[in-house]
């Protein structure tokens, strides 16, 4: 059983909102043969421009599902997030079935899916798993500010570099809110 821990930011979580989320998250249980004591962490946030953001994270033993969506309608955002989570589950199920076909009992982790919500046969979807291009390049020593400038100059969303101070590989990236993030490796 998947239990929901719902937290609202700038919004009161009413019984109607809680029931809608629990009903939609509960439908994900059909994908698992055994999902005991699983918690779905749901964060709801509303903004001054009337947009709502819904984030759902479901940590499990061998898999962490996470999706977020922004929409003018809170209920539509919940539906879109659930759709994303279902795609992640199907993608992972396909990967497990390919990798461990007839060798590993781990494939029993997912229940057999005979039909999707429309009653049509389920297709194994493998979205974007093929590597279509490969690049090699030298990492140059620089600080994070210079890396952000390089990233913006190239028009990319991320940039990998050797941090001059730590001498480790680091990554700067552009966040959805327009600010920048830094990932440092050990």
Automatic annotation (TrEMBL):
Keywords: Coiled coil, Cytoplasm, Translation regulation
Annotated ranges, domain Sigma 54 modulation/S30EA ribosomal protein C-terminal: 129-182
UniProt feature coiled coil, ranges: 75-102
Domain of life: Bacteria
Single GO cellular component term: cytosolic small ribosomal subunit
Statement: the UniProt record of this protein carries the keyword Secreted: no
Pfam families registered for this protein in UniProt: Ribosom_S30AE_C (PF16321), Ribosomal_S30AE (PF02482)
InterPro entries: HPF/YfiA_ribosome-assoc, HPF_long/plastid, RHF-like, RHF/RaiA, Ribosom_S30AE_C, Ribosom_S30AE_C_sf
Entry-linked NCBIfam families: yfiA
Organism: Salinicoccus hispanicus
Function: Required for dimerization of active 70S ribosomes into 100S ribosomes in stationary phase; 100S ribosomes are translationally inactive and sometimes present during exponential growth.
Subcellular location: Cytoplasm
Protein family according to the UniProt entry: Belongs to the HPF/YfiA ribosome-associated protein family. Long HPF subfamily.
Main location group: cytoplasm
Self-association state and partner proteins as the record states: Interacts with 100S ribosomes.
A molecular-function term among this protein's GO annotations: ribosomal small subunit binding
GO biological process terms, semicolon-separated: negative regulation of translational elongation
Protein name in UniProt: Ribosome hibernation promoting factor
């Amino acid at each position: 059983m998947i239990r929901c821990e719902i937290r609202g930011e700038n919004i009161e979580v009413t019984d109607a909102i809680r029931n809608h989320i629990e009903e939609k998250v509960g439908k994900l249980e059909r994908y698992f043969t055994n999902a005991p004591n699983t918690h779905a962490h749901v964060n709801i946030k509303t903004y001054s421009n009337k947009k709502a953001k819904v984030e759902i994270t479901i940590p499990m033993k061998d898999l962490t599902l996470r999706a977020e969506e922004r929409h003018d309608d809170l209920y539509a955002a919940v539906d879109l997030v659930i759709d994303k989570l279902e795609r992640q589950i199907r993608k992972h199920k396909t990967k497990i079935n390919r990798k461990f076909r007839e060798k590993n009992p781990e494939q029993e982790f997912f229940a057999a899916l005979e039909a999707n919500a429309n009653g049509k046969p389920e297709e194994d979807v493998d979205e974007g798993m093929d590597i279509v291009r490969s690049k090699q390049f030298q990492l140059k020593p620089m600080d994070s500010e210079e890396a952000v400038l390089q990233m913006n100059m190239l028009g990319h969303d991320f940039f990998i570099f050797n941090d001059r101070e730590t001498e480790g590989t680091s990554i700067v990236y552009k966040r959805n809110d327009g600010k920048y993030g830094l990932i440092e490796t050990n």
